[in-house]
Amino acid sequence: MDYAKDNPHDKRHKELLSNKKSFLSLLRDCVKEPWVYELDEDSITQTNNSFILQDFSEKEADIVYEATLNGNKVIFYILLELQSKVDYRMPYRLLLYIVEILRHYYNHSDPNERDNKDFKFPVVFPIVFFSGKDTWTVPFNLRDMFSNHGVFGNYVLNFEYMLVNAKGYDDDTLRNFSSKLLGLILMLEKAKNDVEFYSRVRDNLDFIEAFDNEEKRILSLCIKITDIAYGYNKSDDIQRLLSESQIQEVDGMLCDMIEYAQVEKDELRFEGELKKALEVAKNLLEMDGYEATRQIRALGSHGEVIPIIAMTANILNEDVEKCLAAGMNSHTGKPIIFHYFFSRPL
To answer: For residue 271, what are the contacts with CB-CB under 8 A and spacing of at least 6?
Structure first.
């Protein structure tokens, strides 16, 4: 399968939430409703159905679970929102999918039962799993998409969905998730660089050591999908860690990875600052001395250590003060008296 052609969030999160432990953790740690603990865990099964419409196939994916609560079927519909920006049509899109789910249920039910007055549809519990960076500002109720809904009250069609914002949990909360796999992957997705990534792996070594084979497979696969999609190279490192039986060896390997990643990070930062310095240097000839000094000082640590001395024909106090205010180290007038100039501290 060519993962690079598909949205990496789609593949990662589908693999992750197709794991029953992760799904249960999603309910217990994110939904947090009392009825979650009343579900018959043995009855929880993932179906092979998908209800994504063609119009939205590039923007989202879905996972469908069925379970039993108090002897009745419940359908959990998880919509994986793949767009980085929020879509204000979300309640409407969910309405279309819920109708499709109910229609599918009705068409596949026993004809004799559905003609009975006691026939009931299962509750469809909609969950939006959002992993984008933007703040979620979409209404949670369908009725908010109708004009004048307040006038008509309960006669307006309505439902509410549950939002799970994957990037909305801090590390301590994620570590306490009942599924350590779910918590770890969401934690790793928030890492801003390799140093943070490998440091978080090291901080959670105890949990990783306790993963079963399926959880280790999903962890490795999720990282590999990210590597293929974005050109990273972390999956081989993680695979070596997972295959190592001694935790002390794993910890040592991670320390080396963190140190190497920190060196790379420092080198990239230095290259960035150097590139910026060269750009400033190109523009120096077009600036006066005051502006050139301010630009150099704005480069950060490298620009701060460069000595800059003003040399002007005028040596009035206001000229000296203007030079120092711009960030210059010192000032001298013309002509230069060398033995006096080099004896002065900067």
So the answer is: none
Q: Alpha carbon 58 to chain centroid distance?
A: 19
pLDDT value, residue 4: 34
Query: Smallest Cα–Cα separation from 194: which of 268, 248, 274?
Result: 268
pLDDT at 334: 74
Read off the pLDDT of residues 239-295 as tens digits, 9 standing for 90 and up. Answer: 666 555 555 554 555 455 555 555 565 555 656 666 666 666 666 656 778 888 887
Strand partners, 126: 77
Which residue, chain included where needed, has tokens 């060519």? 2
Q: Which residues pair with 333 in a beta bridge?
A: 312
> In terms of DSSP bridges, do strands 162-165 and 330-333 run parallel, antiparallel, or are they unpaired?
unpaired
Q: What is the phi/psi pair of residue 31, to 5°?
A: -75, -50
Buried b (16+ CB within 10 A) or exposed e, 31-43: eeeeebeebeeee
Q: Of how many residues is the chain composed? A: 346
Helix ranges (DSSP H) in 68-138: 90-107, 111-114
pLDDT digit string, tens, across residues 27-36: 999 999 999 9
CA pair distance 309, 63, nearest whole angstrom = 67
Cα separation, 228 vs 1, in Å, equals: 12
* Token pair of 183 as six digits: 């918590």
SS3 content of the chain, % helix, strand, coil (to 5): 55, 15, 30
SS3 61: strand
CA distance 227 to 261: 16
Whether residue 163 contacts residue 1, with contact meaning beta carbons closer than 8 Å, is answered with: no
Give the model confidence (pLDDT) of 4-58 as tens digits: 334 555 678 888 999 999 999 999 999 999 999 999 999 999 999 888 877 666 6
